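Provenance

Sequences were taken from public entries as deposited. Structures were produced by running a predictor on each sequence independently, with no templates supplied. The record for Reverse transcriptase domain-containing protein from Argulus foliaceus is shown for reference.
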Amino acid sequence: KITQDLLNVKLASAGVPQGSSYGPVIYVLMIHLLPVTQEIRMSINVDDIALVDAWEQACQNINVVVQEVANWCNKIYAKANPDKCRYTPFGFHGREQPDSHQQHKNKILKLLHTERAPLDDTSTQLYPENCA
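Predicted structure for Reverse transcriptase domain-containing protein:
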């Protein structure tokens, strides 16, 4: 209710058109709903979100954080575009990743590109339960 006028609440049946001047404002409002996590560092640049963690901890943390991002997407009625999702491991000082690194990468890329599984599928895990 505003002053003496009553407002009728209606659900929108469509989103904001691509390139609209409202898009950036709506994005800024929605990005503040993204939960902050202590497990993995999130780097947000314009409309990209990067999840960054050390390899040793990533195995334990990535599933939790991906699920939080998926819940956030569901909360704001957004869909993650599998064609724009990337798993990009890297290291410093010539340190090699564990042997299972390529297996994890293949599993994630298959999940995102081949199966096109939605991020809100709670049964989907990027890493096995007991990964090493």
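The chain has three helices and two strands.
Confidence is low (pLDDT under 50) at residues 110-132.
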